[in-house]
């Protein structure tokens, strides 16, 4: 995005108003949730029309048509506020004005999604609309009783099961706040902190530059809500660094893509899907993060191992120790940035709602950024400590005065910063508000549009058809049902972001897995994981193609390498279905949980050795094939497969270790 575009007054102030609106409604709830959702969608449409042209191209400045369409979108959004009581009174019976506004708004949501992310998601959603309108003419298996255009428009544009449904509710409350939270941390220097800590910690080890990418991209990925966006931001630093130290271009791009997408499955934030999942299946947020923890560790363990093995195979060393920053010094310089993250995690795991935790995390970040700007003007250490104590006590008045206390503190800090001529700090805050609103556009528009699918499914009962087919298949083979569900998630996920992909697949496929006896959280995690993997799976592989221009390598080759590196994302969901203890579900006991985690670690390690062709020394072709076979045996929970897999793994690894030891002895003797 050009500087002219990014700072055009209409876009700039529109984005600021969007962020301020979301903060105020989250803090004080002055409007009903229906009105908040409608205005949220209005702001999304307004900004998209200012930023993107009719062909989806980024505009250097808003066009006349863009301004006109954006204004219409905002007016139609406020219609839901002005006539809220009337709309509730005549629910389901549209007036002529309702019909026009609902139809035009629906078309605008489709058009905004097309401009922002291409045709894939709009075409999928349009197929569902077509099914609602013409499904009565389909064969018996797919047929429904038939619905008129007025019923469809009423369901999709005026109920809470269409474009203003649960996804938009989550986008307008939790997701926007967490995206804004990530934008503030990024503007304050969190990315530099993560990079410095990662380089200082592992940069000097074997394959250090790639391990830096795994750590920094994974840490940022869980905060900023978009794996593809994370590839573009952190990849500008990590991919050239990996290439400089000898990694092949396609491997460097694949490491960045898999690490960034992995951030979406790493607690506590999980790219905001954790909040949608908790809302969808009505379970506590803590249960979602608990189930995601072990698989996320396995995922990043696999990526880390792949990087280490590739470095060993290619003989790549790390950065010179003298060139690596001191991680403790990096933490000392920016330690305060971690406080909001710590507070956020503590609040989330203490039972506070994500809305409250996100609001407080955001507020603390703003106070810390402003407070740090003022503390620089206090030279005496004792006075500086006193300043932080007073500021902390002032924030503690939140317990008595509520969120108003934080707003008063921010206002006082703003006045003091202006008096000290610290415009840079205030610019950081304003720019974070602006960037946060822009970062929310793809997620927000996608959430609004996938509401169409949920609305149609609710209206027609379409999910029962797919679910019935999967259940029928599962009566003969659960593995075939899982494979069909996986393919559904991968196909639907090609070209659309993670959040809408999860919403679609959780509505269609997850209920079928639940019916087949798969635990509730495991069934939703299964479809969520393969939604993530869709961004790494050719031929679309959005994350891989995002890394392509930075790595200067084929996006298809990066995608193929990503599949090798991210194998845990394909293996763990299957293992969790057969052994729910892997996601800490069920009552299998500590011993069973430890065993299945050990088995998963061994399986992904064997796959890594087989795929890269290296452990202590290069693997022969036979060793590679046997290692992959042992890994496959450990994944399938069939009679004797665990025993055979463990035995084969022990034989392969023992023989390889013995050969390496013998080779070292011969080299020493000679």
Structure commentary:
The chain has 670 residues and is mainly alpha-helical. Helix content is 77%, strand content 0%. The chain is built from 33 helices and no strands. It has helices at residues 3-6, 9-28, 33-51, 64-82, 84-89, 96-117, 120-134, 149-157, 166-188, 190-202, 208-224, 227-244, 249-262, 273-281, 285-314, 327-334, 338-349, 354-375, 381-396, 398-401, 403-419, 423-460, 463-474, 478-493, 498-508, 510-515, 520-534, 542-551, 555-565, 567-578, 590-612, 621-635, 641-669. The longest helix is centred in the middle third of the chain and has 38 residues, at 423-460. The radius of gyration is 26 Å and the shape is globular. It starts with a helix and ends with a helix.
Summarize the structure.
Helix content is 77%, strand content 0%. With 670 residues, the chain is mainly α.
């Amino acid at each position: 995005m050009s500087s002219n575009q990014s700072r055009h007054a209409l876009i700039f102030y529109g984005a600021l108003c969007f962020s301020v609106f979301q903060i105020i409604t989250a803090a004080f709830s002055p409007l009903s949730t229906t009105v908040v959702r409608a205005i949220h969608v209005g702001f999304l449409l307004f900004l998209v029309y200012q930023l993107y042209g009719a062909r989806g191209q980024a505009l250097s400045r808003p066009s006349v048509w863009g301004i006109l369409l954006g204004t219409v979108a905002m007016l139609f959004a406020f219609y839901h506020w002005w006539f809220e009581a009337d709309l509730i009174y005549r629910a389901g019976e549209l007036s002529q004005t309702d019909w026009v506004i609902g139809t035009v708004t629906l078309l605008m949501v489709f058009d905004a999604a097309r401009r922002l992310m291409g045709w894939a998601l709009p075409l999928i959603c349009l197929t569902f609309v077509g099914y609602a309108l013409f499904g009565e003419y389909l064969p018996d298996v797919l047929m429904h009783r038939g619905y008129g255009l007025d019923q469809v428009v009423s369901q999709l544009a005026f109920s809470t099961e269409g474009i203003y449904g649960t996804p938009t509710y989550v986008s307008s409350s939790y997701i926007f706040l967490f995206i804004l939270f990530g934008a503030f941390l990024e503007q304050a220097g969190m990315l530099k902190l993560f990079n410095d800590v990662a380089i200082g910690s592992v940069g000097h080890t074997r394959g250090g530059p790639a391990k830096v990418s795994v750590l920094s991209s994974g840490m940022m990925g869980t905060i900023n809500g978009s794996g593809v966006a994370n590839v573009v931001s952190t990849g500008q630093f990590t991919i050239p660094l990996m290439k400089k130290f000898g990694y092949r271009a396609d491997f460097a791009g694949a490491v960045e893509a898999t690490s960034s997408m992995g951030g979406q499955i790493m607690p506590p934030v999980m790219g905001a899907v954790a909040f949608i999942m908790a809302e969808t299946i009505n379970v506590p947020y803590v249960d979602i993060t608990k189930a995601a923890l072990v698989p996320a560790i396995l995922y990043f363990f696999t990526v880390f191992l792949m990087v280490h093995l590739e470095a060993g195979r290619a003989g790549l060393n790390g950065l010179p120790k003298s060139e690596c920053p001191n991680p403790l010094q990096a933490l000392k310089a920016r330690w305060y940035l971690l406080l909001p993250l710590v507070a956020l995690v503590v609040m989330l795991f203490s039972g506070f709602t994500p809305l409250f935790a996100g609001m407080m995390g955001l507020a603390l970040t703003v106070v810390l950024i402003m407070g740090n700007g003022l503390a620089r003007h206090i030279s005496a250490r004792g006075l500086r400590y006193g300043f932080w104590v007073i500021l902390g006590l002032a924030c503690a008045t939140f317990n008595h005065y509520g969120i108003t206390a934080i707003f008063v503190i921010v206002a006082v800090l703003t006045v003091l910063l202006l008096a000290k001529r610290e415009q840079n700090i205030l610019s950081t805050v304003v720019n974070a508000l602006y960037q946060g609103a822009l970062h929310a556009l793809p997620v927000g528009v996608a959430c609004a549009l996938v509401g169409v699918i949920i609305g149609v499914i609710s209206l027609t009962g379409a999910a029962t058809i797919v679910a019935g087919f999967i259940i029928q298949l599962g009566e003969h083979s659960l593995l075939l049902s899982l494979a069909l569900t996986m393919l559904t998630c991968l196909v639907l996920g090609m070209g659309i972001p993670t959040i809408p992909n999860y919403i679609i697949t959780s509505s269609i496929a997850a209920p079928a897995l639940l019916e087949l006896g798969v635990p509730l959280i495991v069934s939703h995690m299964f479809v969520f994981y393969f939604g993530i993997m869709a961004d790494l799976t050719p031929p679309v592989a959005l994350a891989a193609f995002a890394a392509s221009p930075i790595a200067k390598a084929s996006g298809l080759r990066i995608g193929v390498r990503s599949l090798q590196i991210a194998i845990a994302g394909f293996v763990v969901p299957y293992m969790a279905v057969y052994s729910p203890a892997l996601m800490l579900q069920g009552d299998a006991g500590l011993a069973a949980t430890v065993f299945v985690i050990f088995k998963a670690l061994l399986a992904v390690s064997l796959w890594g050795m087989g795929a890269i062709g290296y452990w202590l020394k290069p693997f022969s072709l036979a060793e590679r094939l046997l290692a992959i076979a042992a890994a496959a045996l450990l994944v399938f929970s069939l009679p004797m497969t665990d025993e055979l897999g463990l035995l084969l793994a022990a034989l392969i690894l023992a023989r390889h270790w013995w050969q390496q030891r013998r080779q070292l002895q011969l080299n020493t003797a000679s």
